[in-house]
Amino acid sequence: MGENERFTIEEVDPDGKPTVPKRTQDRFIHQCGVVVRDSVPISIQEWNKKKDDGVSYVDDRCKDQLWNSLMINFSLPPEEDPNNPVIQRKVKKWALKKMAEQFKNWKKRLNEQFVEKDETLEFTGQYAKIKDHWPAFVAYKKSEKAKNGSQTNKLNDAKKLYHHVKEYVLPPCLVLVIDDNLYGPMVALNYI
């Protein structure tokens, strides 16, 4: 996206997700992924700081830089109180969560497509920027620490009875609940 391209976000969900106009929402989400892939090295192991001191993570200063890079192309709806930017805080929190998700998914795809299959990656196009960090990324993904962490995560995930629950509000007194559990997605209409 060029620096001269500008998109105006007109509405934001209570959780901070830009919603209107739809085209701007789509560009915002896409740009979250672009910014994080272009700016955060794949050799960084975690998005947030963990208790383990030996783990690299994205620090708050870097997250602020990611936010500033993202907002070059977007403007937010006006705040009710300019001295208390509530909308900006909500959108920033949502955008950083989206970036964390996209960063994790980017590294997961790289791991599944290349590291686990012992495939050679050609550092052209979208992969050109990761060339310098590739050896560290591969070394970590093949380490016992990473394999043990992955195994622990898989075991914990298998123990979950309920995964993501999403609620969609329907006409005034109905709520559509989609529950993705071990038995597959379940849909229910609940009265509120």
* Category by helix and strand content: alpha+beta
Low-pLDDT residue spans:
none
- Order of neighbouring strands in the sheet with most strands: 5-6-7
N-C termini distance:
43 Å
Strand content: 15-25%
Mean pLDDT across every amino acid position: 87
DSSP, total strands = 7
Please summarize what this structure is.
This protein has 192 residues and is α+β, with helices and mostly antiparallel strands. It has helices at residues 22-39, 60-70, 86-115, 134-141, 144-159; strands spanning 7-8, 11-12, 18-20, 74-75, 162-169, 174-181, 184-191. The protein contains five helices and seven strands.
Characterization of the model:
The chain has five helices and seven strands; from the N terminus they run βββααβαααβββ. The chain has a three-stranded antiparallel beta sheet, with no helix packed on it. Strands 1-4 form a two-stranded parallel ribbon. Helix 1 crosses helix 3. The radius of gyration is 20 Å and the shape is globular. The chain has two domains: 153 residues, no CATH class; 30 residues. By secondary structure, it is α+β, with helices and mostly antiparallel strands.
